[in-house]
Predict the structure.
Amino acid sequence: MKIGFIGLGIMGKPMAKNLLKAGYDLTINDLNKEAVEEVVACGAANASNAEIGETCDVVLTMVPNSPQVKAVMLGEDGVAAHMRPGTLFVDMSSINPMASQEIAAELEKKGIDMLDAPVSGGEPKAIDGTLAFMVGGKQEVFDKAKPILEAMGSSVTLCGGIGAGNTTKLANQIIVACNIQALSEALTMAKKAGVDPELVFEAIKGGLAGSTVMNAKAPMMIEGNDKPGFKIDLHIKDLNNALDCAHSVGAPVPMTAAVQEVFQWLHNNDCGGDDHSSIIKYYKKLAGLETL
């Protein structure tokens, strides 16, 4: 089986490397030539998107948002124009579920199967191959792709038909965003009250408030580490999609709207490229704190 992989960003590059470690025949492409060279050095071949479509049995994408997925797959001379009937497209990007359904409908006309399979876990889990995949599509197509996804993740779950994967990812992103917002408020309150935030974290992480989000992000907030594992601008993109989806189905999401406004403030203050744990900067600004 020959696999094509398009999109070698913070997440995509280590994911591609894990496919190589698993022994897959991998062909890659990305606009970032340094990233391409790094993955080629690990054993991948480099080819154009058209060549990937012509030669690969499975095409994977890991790009920022719906417009990029549509451009890569359905744009002028897009990958889909070169794929054979019976081949498979798996989009691992986090995009609007309705866009996933639109792309799948176009591919179906060409006899190409599709899964939407966004991930959660950030850069650390992309590197160690323990990402969580949330997948939408047909059971038989999922069964075909599952071993490939398991080379990059420790959890691979079929959530429903096309679009269900991205709907699940949007739910995930709402929960993560609200968690890091609550964590920021709590640590800021502790600091203003004269209690060491690191001791607060140590005391509560094993209780009901403890979470994967807290374990990953509290140390970054306390250290002032804003190196992006997941950028604020990407979380803004995901929450925009969540708000669009919620509005279209009539679901109330007031907490999502509130945290989105905080993220937007950070974007407007040159923090869009920081890790989303940098939401703490907003609270430090309001509280007049230099550090936690």
